[in-house]
Design a protein that fits this description.
By secondary structure, the chain is mainly beta. The chain has one helix at residues 131-138; strands at residues 10-12, 20-21, 38-40, 48-58, 66-76, 81-82, 89-90, 109-119, 142-153. The chain has one domain (10-153): Alpha-Beta Complex (Phosphatidylethanolamine-binding Protein), CATH 3.90.280. It has one helix and nine strands; from the N terminus they run E-E-E-E-E-E-E-E-H-E. The protein starts with 9 loop residues before the first strand and ends with a strand.
C-alpha cells in the first residue's frame, strides 16, 4: 500500500525568505512592484483563494496603534503555482488602493503578513471589499490558511 502524502497549504516568494527583508524594489522607496508569490498544497475541495497583506506594527513597532492593510485580493484560482492577482478580484487597502501597496514604514522595522486562505466557495463579485468585509464573507468557508511574513524598515 502506498501512503498519500498530504502537503499543507503554503505561500512563498522568490523575492524574499520567510521572516526576512522584503527587497526595496517592492516598497515605496523602490518601484513598488508586486512581489512574486507562489502557492503549493492547495487542499482538495478548494474553489478559490483569498489574500490579505497587513502590517500590525503601524505606525511605530515600539508603540503599534493599528494594523495597516496593504493588499486585499479574493476569488483567486485555487491552483498551485504562481499567484497572479490579476486573475482575482481586487479588494481595497487602507490607503484606498485596489492593488499592491508596498511597505512604507514611517519609523522602525515592520512586519508584513501575507495571509492566504483556501476557500470552499467562490465569493463572486462583491465589489472592492476591505479586509473586515472579506473576513466576514469568508466566515465558515476557510478550508486552510497559511502565511508568509516579510519585514522592511530601518535596521
Amino acid at each position: 500500500m502506498i501512503a498519500a502524502v498530504l502537503a499543507a497549504l503554503a505561500l512563498q516568494s522568490s523575492a524574499f525568505e520567510a521572516n526576512a527583508q522584503i527587497p526595496t524594489r517592492f516598497t515605496c522607496q523602490g518601484a513598488n512592484e508586486t512581489p512574486p508569490l507562489s502557492v503549493a498544497g492547495v487542499p482538495a475541495g478548494a474553489k478559490s483563494l483569498a489574500l490579505i497583506v497587513d502590517d500590525p506594527d503601524a505606525p511605530d513597532p515600539a508603540k503599534p496603534k493599528r494594523t495597516w492593510v496593504h493588499w486585499v485580493v479574493y476569488d483567486l484560482p485555487a491552483s498551485p503555482g504562481e499567484l497572479r492577482a490579476s486573475a482575482g478580484r481586487a479588494g481595497t487597502g487602507d490607503a484606498g488602493n485596489t492593488g499592491w501597496r508596498g511597505p512604507c514604514p514611517p519609523v522602525g522595522r515592520h512586519r508584513y503578513f501575507f495571509k492566504l486562505y483556501a476557500l470552499d466557495v467562490q465569493l463572486g463579485d462583491r465589489g472592492e471589499l476591505g479586509k473586515a468585509e472579506l473576513e466576514k464573507a469568508m466566515q465558515g468557508h476557510v478550508l486552510e490558511k497559511t502565511e508568509l511574513v516579510g519585514t522592511y524598515g530601518e535596521k
